[in-house]
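To whoever is on call:

I kicked off a structure prediction for a single chain this morning and the downstream step that reads the tokens threw a length-mismatch warning. I double-checked the sequence; it's 391 residues and nothing unusual in it as far as I can see. Pasting both halves so you can look.
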Amino acid sequence: MMCSYEHFWKAVDQLQRRLLHDWRQKGQCQQTNNDVINRDVVLHRIEYIILNVTKAIARGEAPVFRYANRSSWDNIRFDSAIGLEQIGEAKLTHVRFDSINSVKKFGIMVKVLSLIYKLIQEDKYCTKRDIYYQFPELFGSQSVLDSAVDNLACMLEVPRWELHVLATSKGCVAGDLQFYDAEGQYNDCQATRVGIQIPAHSKDFQSLQTNARYVLIVEKDATFQKLLLDNLCDKYGPCIMITGKGFPDMGTRMLLRALRDRFQLPMFALVDADPHGVEIMAVYKFGSKAQAAENCFLAVPEIRWLGVLPSDIQRLNLQEDTLISMTKKDMDKACELLGRPYVQSNWQLLEQIQIMIQSGKKAEIQCLDSLSSSYLCQVYIPEKLASGCWL
């Protein structure tokens, strides 16, 4: 049975009032993407690093790059109001010019640093993909360049977007949202049936306007398109629907954070009931370990996990043939999630992962189609919102 609109909007409105209260209590103390670092500061930091390299060579010493180790949980702490953040006295990674194991990495970082310096000087932007194809033999693979850019941002202690090197955008947005890009072009997300591609940089979603009352974050593009086809934004709107098409890109996370900072809208995540889906939800909500220094600009701790919850599998009596057995890799990931600080501090999240491990089963969002082709849009989402059955 479909829930009443009265109960639906009452639940959403109650959550928004609570978010606004919490926002005011915190004094709006979190950083936003508008807290930009002056480009001259970034240039001076690059110059300082290169000067130190030059001095070391002049003294007959091997230059060394030092930055916080981005792969260690020992460098991370969890704050429920911020998400994952880097500790002040972080363990350092050393990239030495006189080490055979890191000399190539050192050279690549110097090369990328010179490209970044030029981009910032000329106030131009470039995608990591474009840079890779300028020097494919040097980098060898896209991941080598991606790692170099991330490490340089960590060493310079600036968000990656301040380096003028952007990741290729892949996220989409639809619903009640309007904005202008840096060229002054007007974008109306209500005027599309497939969604508008989310810009890679916050400068391209200026003058955000919306009458939406909540935001729905969808893990997969296929589900996003199905909900658009089923007119969710019209039936249970005004709302904004966003997908990062899997693991979220920077542009998608920046847009969500901008919507949170400006409008304090309730936000709900719809992901698969599997370890990968939980991790994707967690990146939106708490941020990632590798980008701990940037999570204060990107994480949205207020996001609620709407579904699909592992506990929904039994509650909805989903048939066995719609479920998928967990692989060893799935089990290993789920067990690793149990040890993460944001799971340890949230008994509800911990319980859901334990249910997943104990059952040995995982479920994709599409499994709800076994109940009805319209079940997700017409029953599951509105009833979940109306009853407040989220985490």
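Update from on-call: the warning came from a stale cache, not from the record. Cleared it. Sanity check on the structure: The longest strand covers residues 64-68.
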